[in-house]
Specification:
This protein has 313 residues and is of the alpha/beta class. Helix content is 31%, strand content 17%. The strands form three sheets. Strands 4-13-12-11-10-5-9-7 form an eight-stranded mixed sheet, with helices on both faces. Strands 1-2-3 form a three-stranded antiparallel sheet, with no helix packed on it. Strands 6-8 form a two-stranded antiparallel sheet. About 3% of the residues have low confidence.
């Protein structure tokens, strides 16, 4: 298979774009070779700059469940673009898509729209800390929640160890507030709550661990997690960026019957366009500005193009 055009484009890109790509996984560094530069897509196929055709099993890392260039989504984007791309003000479509999301996920009583899954998890963490007046966060080894400083940590040796930075640029003092535990390990979870329970603001988890090979949860582990969070007044956050609307219409929380306090969703909400959502109990969400003291904002949050693409039918 010829990929000369892709190779040439990558070499040129390295002179203008840091690393030659705008997200590290695209560099193919961990699997060898050079990135493929794609030109177009249709249904389940991708076409690169050299004219090669690929059967796509990735779907832009999850959101293209309706296939590439779905005509209804494309028409919705065109229609909204002809009316306006960004207003920096509320639109009716924000309300309409919020009602749709709530109808699928009953645990979400109120929500906020942001620009990515990373922004959604970041906002959940800030909201949890602001609501509980606690500092520490529990996450699970192998679960990825975006490049948020508080969540981009790895565990030290042993169980219930405080995190160490997983990237330069993250202050060690900040990572010390994150506790990384083994996934599906009830005893480690119990020990962490016994030692730090009075200062654990939130537990964040991929309820199905998509970023380490789609590891399914032990249902008893999730039940105990829910119980411990309730007992310790800790906010339980489900990161359903990868699982929302796919494993079940209402995500893992519907599939397994475990209700989180907050949920984070990603670009599937906008048909694959840049968008994120976080939401949950009204008593928690009411703490967000302008109603409450926890600040979160964004000019393109709930942008017209993305919310239109998310409800084309």
């Amino acid at each position: 298979m010829k990929t000369k055009k892709s190779q040439d484009l990558f070499e040129k890109s390295k002179h203008h774009i840091a690393g030659g790509v705008n997200s590290p996984v695209r560099a193919f560094k961990s699997v060898g070779g050079t990135p493929i530069f794609f030109k177009k897509s249709r249904e389940c196929y991708l076409y690169d700059e050299d004219g090669n055709k690929y059967l796509d099993f990735v779907g832009s890392w999850g959101p293209m469940v309706l296939g590439h260039s779905n005509k209804n989504i494309v028409n919705a984007i065109k229609n909204q673009a002809s009316k306006g791309i960004s207003f920096g003000a509320p639109t009716k479509n924000e309300l309409e898509i919020a009602k749709i999301i709530k109808s699928y996920l009953p645990s979400i009583e109120k929500l906020r729209m942001v620009n990515s899954g990373t922004e959604a998890t970041m906002s959940c963490i800030r909201l949890a800390r602001g609501t509980t007046n606690k500092k520490k966060i529990i996450k699970f080894i192998g679960c990825y929640h975006g490049h948020v400083d508080s969540l981009l940590v790895k565990a030290g040796s042993g169980l219930a160890t405080l995190g160490v930075p997983d990237s330069p640029g993250i202050p060690e003092e900040l990572s010390q507030l994150t506790i990384s535990l083994p996934y599906n390990d009830i005893s480690a979870l119990e020990r962490a709550f016994k030692e730090y329970g009075n200062d654990i603001a939130a537990v964040i988890i991929e309820p199905i661990a998509g970023n380490m090979g789609f590891i399914e949860p032990d249902i008893n582990f999730l039940k105990e997690l829910r119980n411990l969070c309730t007992k310790n007044k800790t906010i339980l956050i489900f990161d359903e960026v990868m699982t929302g609307f796919r494993v079940a219409r209402g995500g893992v929380q519907e599939l397994l019957g475990i209700t989180p306090d907050l949920t984070a969703l990603g670009k599937i909400v906008g048909g694959g366009l840049p968008v994120g959502v976080y939401g949950g109990k009204a008593e928690i969400m009411n703490n967000i500005s302008p109603d409450g003291p926890v600040y979160q904002a964004g000019t393109l949050s709930g942008n017209p193009i993305a919310v239109s693409a998310g409800q084309p039918y």
